[in-house]
Amino acid sequence: MATVVPIAYQNTSASVPDWLNKGDNAWQMISATLVGMQSVPGLVILYGSIVKKKWAVNSAFMALYAFAAVLICWVTWAYKMSFGDKLLPFWGKAGPALGQKFLIRQARLPATTQYYDSGAVETAVIAPFYPMASMVYFQFVFAAICLILIAGSLLGRMNIRAWMLFVPLWLTFSYTVGAFSLWGGGFLFHWGVMDYSGGYVIHLSSGIAGFTAAYWVGPRMKKDRERFPPNNVLLMLAGAGLLWMGWAGFNGGDPYTANIDSSIAVLNTNICAATSLLVWTCLDVIFFKKPSVIGAVQGMITGLVCITPGAGLVQGWAAIVMGILSGSIPWYTMMVVHKRWKLLQKIDDTLGVFHTHAVAGLLGGTLTGIFAEPTLCALFLPVTNSRGAVYGGSGGVQVLKQLAGACFIIGWNVVMTSIICVVISLVIPLRMPEEELLIGDDAVHGEEAYALWGDGEKYDSSKHGWYSDETTTPPKPPSGVTQIV
User: Fold this and answer.
1) Would you call the peptide bond into 382 cis, given omega within 30 degrees of 0 as the criterion?
2) Where are the transmembrane segments (predicted)?
3) CB-side neighbour CA atoms (13 Å) of 252
């Protein structure tokens, strides 16, 4: 992604002005919808299915709430903080993004690229020929999924009221900083750090923030940590499938136009994801003697995350290499390093978001600095002359830039997430009370995921006869009643 500069467009009676590229606009709205479906229903289904049965409703609702809350915050103030006028080198000025008389009409091709002087570095303005409304919505779904990914670290014990406060605060003081710094014309963007579609802005930040928040919230109940089986593996796969297919919009929409770059990004995304899934599965078979379905999903996710910062910047062969590494390195950190490092064991990261997103995101950003192809870099950002290390020239410097950019994202998220959690804890406990932790969904929401009797009510002997949901054999009937077999 790159800096977007809105230009005022005078109202006209024509709903389809001459400059509007209807194809690009359609692709952008489709891409945004695909990314939105990754969250709702994708991660809603995945979270609700991969957790223990008593946490299905709470886990799904955390994702659903975040999606809605982020949208209102985004159009009210956060979009401009991410893509508006500069307030600080890493932050934009807050403001509403509701007035649709502002439309984006800029050229992307090098021959006609317009330039925006930020006062520091002359940088290409990259934006397509379509309304600002399309861009606001497209960027919203990225912000929303970032918060939902953080929830994956906190499932099964975070106070839902604390989560309701956490979402707008973290969006405002953490996400907008990363988005502006790397995509909105901030200092990392001008310096040439490449993050094609969110390996740093979305995945590294969510992995680090989730891990940090998990430290402050505290762990699940001991018996939940020891045994936390998914309540529906097949439904989990449905959610994972929506996540995978939706990534076509996640990476394919980031050139802001339906061009060569978007096609390459979609193909590379699927190549890397498939390779990573197969590598992870093979490692499970080699070391654990059985292929794990959950493991395959983890490998799929790490492949999708790893390719994201370089999806439209690398060749197909590099996508395969990145898939091999994303299927093995996060596997090693999760299956080996995690079990030997006391810090990782102490912090209860419910779904291992640190490994699947922080480790894979950092890996992808670094590999982008190694494999980014110069011609594709020119399509993405014409004036930086960026190139991967394997192509010689200044490629070695690019790797250092990628690592420095990652350090900023990591540091900011550790500090800001910690401050947010401490502030919230002064108002409301971050962790559920013990009685809610023991019962789960019914105590927190007054609802349960699955109907076990008749119309879904709890077992009641006055309604459901003599059988107990705790037994498999019928008790003796009351005196005077004849039991018919």
Assistant:
1) no
2) 26-48, 60-79, 136-155, 162-188, 200-218, 230-250, 262-286, 293-311, 317-337, 358-383, 403-428
3) 25
Q: How far apart are CA 383 and CA 126, in angstroms?
A: 11
Half-sphere exposure of 137 (CA within 13 A, CB side): 19
Biggest CA–CA distance in the chain, Å, is 94
Q: Determine if the pTM surpasses 0.85.
A: yes
Residue 309: what pLDDT?
A: 96
Q: In terms of C-beta density within 10 A (0-12 exposed, 13-18 middle, 19 or more buried), how is residue 205 classed?
A: buried
- 88: β partners: 91
pLDDT score at 452? 66
Domain boundaries, the chain: 17-437
211 is written with which tokens? 């891990």
Spatial strand order in the sheet of 7-8: 7-8, 102-105, 129-131
DSSP state of 129: E
Give the pair of three-digit tokens for residue 122. 């002359």
Burial annotation 150-174 (CB, 10 A radius, 16+ → b, else e): bbbbbbbbbbeebbebbbbbbbbbb
State the Rg of the chain over Cα.
24
Topology (CATH level 3) of domain 17-437: Ammonium transporter fold (1.10.3430)
pLDDT < 50 stretches in the chain: 5-13, 102-126, 383, 464, 466-474, 477, 480-485
205/260 Cα distance (integer angstroms): 29
Neighbours of 278 (CB within 10 A): 17
Asked whether the beta carbons of 389 and 372 are under 8 A apart, the reply is no
Alpha helices in 6-110 (DSSP H): 22-37, 44-50, 56-73, 79-83
Alpha helices in 128-259 (DSSP H): 132-151, 160-170, 176-182, 187-191, 205-217, 222-226, 233-252
User: Residues 138-169: pLDDT tens digits?
Assistant: 999 999 999 999 999 999 999 999 999 999 99
